[in-house]
Amino acid sequence: MKTPIIQATNIEKNFGQDAVLKGVSLTAYEGQVVTILGSSGSGKSTLLRCLNLLEIPSAGKIEFAGKNIALSKDKKGNAMVSNQQELIALRKNISMVFQQFNLWSHKTIMENVIEAPTIVLKKSRAEASDEAYEILKKVDMHQHIKKYPSQLSGGQKQRIGIARALAMNPKVLLFDEPTSALDPEMVYGILQLMGDIAKENRTMILVTHEIEFAKKISDYVLFLKDGKIAEEGENILTQPQSKEFQHFLSHLI
Ligand code: ADP
Ligand code: MG
User: Fold this and answer.
1) How far does the centroid of ligand 1 lie from the alpha carbon of residue 46, in Å?
2) Ligand 1 pocket: which residues have CB below 6 Å?
3) Model-level pTM greater than 0.90?
4) Cβ count near 240 (within 10 Å)
5) Angle 224-8-28 (CA atoms, 0-180°, nearest 5)?
6) Nearest CA to ligand 1 atom 5
7) Most C-beta atoms within 10 A of its C-beta, which of 45, 106, 166, 174?
8) CB within 8 A of 127, min separation 6: which ones?
9) pLDDT by residue (tens digit) across 110-136?
């Protein structure tokens, strides 16, 4: 049996009194596309953020390439990663693309893309810039390297968000509603780019409301409701079983 590249088991996340994730498990094998669906507030972003430990789960287990990332509690009882080296190693392997792009507004496009490779991977500026240029070509943004984010359209900003994630050459890419903030005419190009990236055999974990795209691209789909998985499987988008998921899908189309 192959080892999953990422495996989350029984993840719980509380914010104060609020239980936002109530025992969610997710497995992704290398090269797979796993899609997370659910209404607003169901816990999709929190789950993605737990996978790269931007949020520390209150309970449960995260394993990366078969290795458990040890979690513990600090003196106040807040969840924490026991070993910072493990956290750094995980972050080198997982990159995230955000709905609101999260680019540095005071840095140029090139500087945005080389930031993590120079700081986290300790690459020289020259090497990082050469690699960034190739990636920017791939996302068709190499003509804009000296511009600032404010000079770009939403679709262009998201191309940079994707380029920045790819610049870390991560094993796993997380996408949190990457097209939700875009004008409709920009959506197709970004989805096409994501389809191209999926073909390169990268593991992708994706939150989206683009159901037709999700049908084409997903190897596995999870439907979250109120912090729990209400339905999951390979073919649930074409054969939804539960009333809840059927209802969710019928309201999207
Ligand atoms: P989704 O991405 O599915 O819309 P989220 O994961 O963003 O849902 O949020 C799920 C619930 O958790 C929401 O009720 C939200 O208000 C709450 N939540 C998310 N992040 C935090 C936080 N940092 N502090 C407190 N509550 C939060
Ligand atoms: Mg969200």
Assistant:
1) 6
2) 15, 18, 20, 38, 40-46
3) yes
4) 19
5) 85
6) 43
7) 174
8) none
9) 999 999 999 999 999 999 999 999 999
